[in-house]
Each structure stands twice: as structure tokens, then as C-alpha cells.
Design goal:
The protein is an alpha/beta fold. The chain is built from 10 helices and 16 strands. The chain has 2 domains: 259 residues, Aminopeptidase (3-Layer(aba) Sandwich), CATH 3.40.630; 113 residues, Alpha-Beta Plaits, CATH 3.30.70. The strands form 4 sheets. An 8-stranded mixed beta sheet has the order 1-2-4-3-5-16-6-15. A 4-stranded antiparallel beta sheet has the order 10-12-8-13, with helices on one face. α3 crosses α10 and α6 packs antiparallel against α7.
């Protein structure tokens, strides 16, 4: 079946610009959800609410009871936009700076295209998911039983990515994006006069030792072949220059591709904190908040589809330490996540994700639609 992507350029461009004007953060995407619902219903779909502000629409298969799903995230970010486009965000201090307006537009355009096809062999579920930027909507959708209800065997998604040239499709078999955690560390020492440090217990000295010790975890406790990141991003403590600091707080992030590596780093961090407590006679509390699992593309599924994808545009990308809650779908069923390149130096589209000036050439959106079309062909959906 030939896909005439040029026919959809104006349509998806309009979707993108209208959605770009109304960015909303996770689980608050009320106007965004309303817009998507109106479009899907105009295509003839029955639309259902999921995960508070998310939506799903379904096209029943004629032959198989199995289904595949395509997912777009719908939330924006709390960023003051500086693109100066005429369709700039109307919600001051909020912006679609991570391309989710593009993701929604691709999936809306694809849903429209599917609605024009006379019949499909397998079911197609369109998932418009809230809160990817946090606290996470994918896990909520799975826990609500959506994949089970529609007998979804695979989920597919993509992300606009300025690290690839416009139109290139980035893919990686196996680990592609990292598992991630946030951590907070509170050190309780004993304050005193800066001129009499021997009568106090300096929390800053403890914090310095802790930071240095943490840096040895990845370099000395983890196989060099494995990828991992341990970053302390903030440190706050002390009251005045001549007072020994009593309370110190450190905040950071942990990322790894392998679950065992991830767990080992957490264990070593806790061990070091316990050791420093004894060594310096202080109290140290460390709290971890596990965030998203690692994005791991199913190797067998990718092998079965690779011959149907546009070979001239495929790029085998390196794994990256970014995080994505699409990983929850991959833990439920074999699934694939792609990167769709949007870098265009000639047009000035070079800013990174989460940048207040992030923008892209909207003609690339139909390339995302074509990718989804070829996936459907490869899986004999129609």
C-alpha cells in the first residue's frame, strides 16, 4: 500500500501549531486532551479517557484479535518560550520544548490516515499519554489494563531528536536509554565557631569525603564496559563563613542501562554513607526515588521489521543517558522506540531538547507517519 505522505503535510503542520499554543504539564493537559478528542472523534473514532488526562482510540482488526499500539506523549514543560514564532505558547512560562506537540501531530495524522483505510487485519490502538516529563503516565496506563484489554502485542513510539539530521531515523537494538533515579542525602553534623573546629564536627568535610568516595564507585566497582552516570548536582549547607556547618544537603541523579549495575551503585552509595557515619560520628540519611526503567528495544522485533524500514535513513545510534517512560510499555510487551532527526542547520533548527528556543521543520512530521505506516506493513496490519 502506497503512503502519500505529502498529502498530510499541511494537516499535521496545523495540528502542531495549534497544539504548540497550549502546552500543559503532566496530568494537567485538559485543553490538550480536549483538542485531541475533538480531532479523533471527527475521524470517526470512539475516544476513551485513560490516566486522568490521557486518551485512547481504537481501530478494530478484521482478521486477528491481536493489536499493536502507537504512543504519543502529550505534556509540555515549565519553560518560558523564546522561539519568537507566530504560534508561540499562549500559556506563559510553559512550552512544548521537548517535541511532544510534534509527537501528537504525527499520531493524529496517522490516526486520520488509518481511518481512511477500508479494513485492517489487526487492531490499532492510538495512545495519547500524559505526564511523560513527570511523574509518568505510561505506568498508569498499563496498570489500568489498557494493553491487556485490547490484546496489544507491541507498542511503538518515537521522539523528535536534534542530535540527528532532519529525517534520519535513529534506532538501537537492546539498551537505548537509561534507567534513572533521583537521590537526596542529608548530613547532620555539629556546628560551632569557625575558630574552634576541634569543638565541632564539620559537615562540609564529610560532604567532601562523600563526593570523592562516590566518584570511585563507577571507576572501581563497575565493569568499564557497562555504562553508568552518578552526578551530584546541588550541595547546600552552612550558615556563615565563620560557623562550622552542621546541616548539609546533596541532591543528584543516578543512571544506568543494566538493572544489576543500577542496584550495585545504589548499594555502594548506601555502604559509603554508613561508613562515613562511623568514621566522622555524624548522621547521614540517603533517600532514593526510582524513576523510569531503561528503554530496551526488543532485538527480535527489530530484526523482523528492519527490512521494511527506510534503510537509507536508518542510523544505528549510541545508547544515551536520557530517560523515557516508554520503557514501561517495553516491560509489558516487546516494543520499539525510535528517534526522528530534526536537526537542520540551514534553517537554524539546532537547539537541543528542553531548550527555550527548540523548534523544527514541520515537514519532518510526515516522516514519522511514514515510519508508522511501514511498521504496519511489516506486521501485516493491512
Amino acid at each position: 500500500m502506497f503512503f502519500e505522505k505529502e498529502k498530510f503535510i499541511d494537516e499535521v503542520r496545523l495540528y502542531r501549531r495549534e497544539l504548540h499554543r497550549i502546552p500543559e504539564i503532566g496530568f494537567c493537559e485538559v485543553n490538550t486532551s480536549k483538542y485531541i478528542r475533538e480531532k479523533l472523534e471527527s475521524f470517526g473514532y470512539e475516544v476513551k479517557s485513560v490516566a486522568k488526562t490521557g486518551l485512547i482510540a481504537f481501530r478494530q482488526g478484521e482478521i486477528s484479535e491481536e493489536s499493536i499500539a502507537f504512543r504519543a506523549d502529550i505534556d509540555g514543560l515549565k519553560i518560558l518560550e523564546e522561539t519568537n514564532v507566530f504560534f508561540q505558547s499562549e500559556n506563559v512560562d510553559y512550552m512544548h520544548a521537548c517535541g511532544h506537540d510534534g509527537h501528537m501531530s504525527i499520531l493524529l495524522g496517522f490516526a486520520h490516515y488509518i481511518s481512511t483505510i477500508k479494513s485492517v487485519n489487526k487492531g490499532i490502538l492510538f495512545i495519547f499519554q500524559p505526564a511523560e516529563e513527570g511523574p509518568g503516565g505510561a505506568e498508569v496506563i498499563i496498570n489500568e489494563g489498557v494493553l491487556d484489554h485490547y490484546n496489544v502485542k507491541h507498542v511503538f513510539g518515537l521522539h523528535l531528536f536534534p542530535g540527528l539530521n532532519e529525517g534520519e531515523i535513529g534506532i538501537k537494538a537492546g539498551p537505548m536509554m537509561a534507567q534513572t533515579a533521583e537521590f537526596d542525602i542529608d548530613i547532620k553534623a555539629e556546628s560551632g565557631h569557625g575558630a574552634a573546629p576541634h569543638k565541632a564536627n564539620d559537615g562540609i568535610i564529610v560532604a567532601a569525603q562523600l563526593i570523592n568516595s562516590f566518584q570511585s564507585i563507577i571507576s572501581r566497582n563497575i565493569n568499564p564496559i557497562e555504562g553508568a552516570v552518578l552526578t551530584i548536582g546541588t550541595i547546600n549547607g552552612g550558615e556563615r563563613r565563620n560557623i562550622i556547618a552542621e546541616n548539609i544537603r546533596l541532591e543528584g541523579t543516578l543512571r544506568a542501562f543494566d538493572k544489576e549495575v543500577y542496584s550495585k551503585i545504589k548499594s555502594r552509595m548506601s555502604d559509603i554513607c554508613k561508613g562515613l557515619e562511623t568514621m566522622f560520628n555524624v548522621n547521614i540519611n540517603i533517600e532514593f526515588r526510582d524513576m523510569y526503567p531503561a528503554v530496551r528495544n526488543d532485538r527480535k522485533l527489530l530484526r523482523s521489521l528492519i527490512k521494511f524500514l527506510p534503510e537509507e535513513r536508518l542510523v544505528d545510534i549510541d545508547p544515551m543517558m536520557l530517560a523515557e517512560d516508554f520503557a514501561y510499555y517495553q516491560e509489558a510487551v516487546p516494543s520499539l522506540f525510535f528517534m526522528l532527526g530534526v536537526k537542520n542547520e540551514e534553517l537554524g533548527y539546532t537547539h537541543q531538547l528542553h531548550n527555550s528556543k527548540f523548534n523544527f521543520n514541520e515537514e519532518v512530521l510526515v516522516e514519522g507517519m511514514e515510519l508508522y505506516h511501514k511498521i504496519c506493513e511489516g506486521l501485516n496490519v493491512y
